Amino acid sequence: MPMRVAWVSPPDVQTVSGRLEGLDTSAFHPATWIRNATRAIARHTDVELHVVSHEKRFPKDYRFVEGGVHYHYLHAPFPQIPRPVVLYQLDRWKYYRELDAIKPDLVHGQGTENLFSYIALTSGYPAVISMQAIVSNLFQQYRRLSRRYFEHAIVQFIERYTIRRARHVIMKAPFVETFIRSLNPDAKLYLLENIIHEAYFAVQRQPDRRRNSVVFVGTLINTKGVEELIGAFHALAGEFPSLEMHLVGTGTHGYVDGILRPMIAAGPGAGRVALHGQLPAEGIAKLFAGASMLVLPSYSDTSPNVVAEALVAGVPVIGTDVGGIPFMIERDRTGLLVPVRDVAALTGAMRQYVRNQPLAEEHARLGCERARMRYGEERFVRSLMAIYEEVLASTPIKGVRRA
Q1: Residue 148: what pLDDT?
Q2: What letter does residue 258 receive in the DSSP assignment?
Q3: Alpha-carbon span 84 to 154, nearest angstrom
Q4: CATH homologous superfamily for the domain 4-195+377-394
Q5: Rounded distance, CA 247 to CA 286, Å?
Q6: Which helix (H) or strand (E) is 393 found in, with range?
Q7: How far is residue 128's CA from residue 69's CA, in Å, rounded to a whole number?
Q8: Where does 198-374 sit in CATH, by number?
Q9: In which residue ranges of the chain is pLDDT below 50?
């Protein structure tokens, strides 16, 4: 019989939007790593894969099969209550009931910045978890009080509890090991990077020499360094009249309309910045075809998909020297790295690529060669299946016991 695996994960609503009647999917996080991996598993294995998630915006429970994957999208009761405040206890038992109905051989928790890995480890089934971000690192980057600040203040304790209990942890970047080992020296660790959508492998680069197009892709929040990027863009706008910028992603109305739009309008680059909102992979790939560079000045990032996507597409990349980004970009070989919150350094790196296009193209060429070998889906699936087999072989089956 094929292995039956349940992923407890963020919901990928874009892929299955046609099955989610009564739901506006436009404001959801795209969860591209979930979409890419589930499609690859369905294509290359006979695993019976179930994706279990919850959302307070779901008007009801949804259960269906799409593309060979079983989806269980659960309505969260009492949506007005912030989940971290009650330590996710409102949703815990609904997950357990769903998992008991599935009866998986293994549960895979996707990320410690929410309840997903916590549910996997307390489900009573053999479990492995993946770390998408280190919440404790994210929390340290906040400079403004916000709802996200207070939520992460609570979630970091759940993350630590989860890591201490984990026997098997999948890392997206090597730097995460230090954090895990400080809490759980005995955990078995695996390094497995995310895979990249085929649209980025299909990009045919045709940069327009008459204009310089800067692209940012990510959630529009201050910890992604968006304000520093706007400042650097304005600093260069007068020097390079052909410079333009494309911001792809969504954020809260208060932040986008109250902070970002006024910043954009106040500088010499006003009128040359486009806010695209959320775009599918094909739309981002189209922007990448003509982009002069991708810039991601994050304060903290584990393994940002957009960096890998740009590298695969052959786009020059500028990122911050933080988290897992230096593991993805080799300094001055496959891209440029700058310090966090350093507008002057960011401006200098962007200027370097605008002035020296042969250098930018050489970085992009070498980065593309390496990334296309590194982020292919067959390699990912082989490694993931080997991890699952090892977890099952080393986990005695004792029946379901809740923590």
Answers
A1: 64
A2: I
A3: 6
A4: Glycogen Phosphorylase B; (3.40.50.2000)
A5: 14
A6: helix 377-394
A7: 19
A8: 3.40.50.2000
A9: none
